[in-house]
Amino acid sequence: MIIKPKTRGFICLTAHPVGCERNVAEQIAYVNRSGTIDGGPKNVLIIGASTGYGLASRIVASFGCGANTVGVFFERLADGDKPASAGWYNSTALKKYAEKEGLIAENINGDAFSDEVKEKTIEAIKSKLGQVDCVVYSLASPKRTDPRTGETYRSVLKPIGGKFKSKTVNVDSGEIGDVEIESATAEEIVGTVKVMGGEDWELWMQTLLRENVLSDRAKTVAYSYLGPKITKPIYSEGTIGRAKEDLDRAADAITHMLANIGGRAHISVNKAVVTQASSAIPVVPLYIAILFRVMREKNLHEGCIEQMYRLFKNHLYGSDESVDTDGRIRIDNLEMREDVQEAVIEIWNKASTENLRGITDIDAYRKEFLKLFGFGIGGIDYDADVSL
């Protein structure tokens, strides 16, 4: 059938299989051009492996390090005339390209928070890889059911201690207006920490260690984001910020847990990029549209694949051991440069509906958003019939 993008707010309801495969192929090509990462991992588990930073991590591990991988994700298969989700097509393409290179690429589709998926993953590691020497934790979800209690928690994007009011942009219409968000309740804070904090990462590492599928000196890394002053009230000082604090706590607990095998847990604070999750956060799309403009003008712009290659090559498996005062790797160092943030704030203060296209990269933002779902990629005939 012929597949066109169908969007509703920050959600794209369709995905193009050929476009998604091309998107994966382009990221693989970047890694191949960038060169082999010496001393990289050989067997890697990626939890949250189908889009964004998780997908980019899997591509870097496979094609930059020559690693076998197990990828865990929760994606929708094609159903009748409804395409599969972009993450499903991404993961299918990754598996195809990895196996062409003689690499193992096992895909596990299901709820990564559940005991069932953890058990399936253990079985796959034991039967295919034996052990893993690197675990990437890259989950983003609106809800989580605690496997121990059966209680379901939901995450929210809200400030703490008062209302938040700021600029935002309607990405579809290009209209800039104000957004006001009520302060989170105590229950909402707890729920967000339960979903987006470090508890599930700990459970994964406990399970992997108990089942003896972690090799000596195994590393694990979870991804975080702090952001600038503009987004602090809704992000780093809000409910998500509390969850990220819990992620820091979990990193310390996991490092202690892995001490007997010489392992270590890392937090990597990454740059703002266009993802379906970030598109849902008020204020963030406008900030990213401005950030793209500034960083491109300064020749500093990076997407997921460039950052993950830099993370693996320079930090996780390189000589750069620099961390911030809280012990976190800062891949967002280019975004947070003083000159970059000063330029962003200057444009932010001027931005209006009338000048949006002239002083920001809102068109590039829209293009990157559609690219997540396989649309707007050069060399593809979007009027051609494709198999779902």
Which characteristics define this entry?
Rossmann fold, single chain, 16% strand, alpha/beta, two-stranded antiparallel sheet, 388 residues
The order of strands across the largest sheet is 5-4-3-6-11-12-13
Share of helix among residues?
Answer: 40-55%
Give the termini separation.
Answer: 8 Å
Largest sheet: 7 strands, parallel
The CATH homology group name: NAD(P)-binding Rossmann-like Domain
What proportion strand?
A: 15-25%
What's the CATH architecture?
A: 3-Layer(aba) Sandwich
- Give the topology string: H per helix, E per strand: EEHEHEHEHEEEEEHHEHEHHHEHHH
Describe this structure in words.
The protein is of the alpha/beta class. It has a single domain (7-371), classed as NAD(P)-binding Rossmann-like Domain (Rossmann fold, 3-Layer(aba) Sandwich). 42% of the residues lie in helices and 16% in strands. It is built from 13 helices and 13 strands. The protein has a seven-stranded parallel sheet with strand order 5-4-3-6-11-12-13, with helices on both faces. Strands 1-2 form a two-stranded antiparallel ribbon. The chain has a two-stranded antiparallel sheet with strand order 7-8. The longest helix is centred in the middle third of the chain and has 19 residues, at 239-257. The protein is globular.
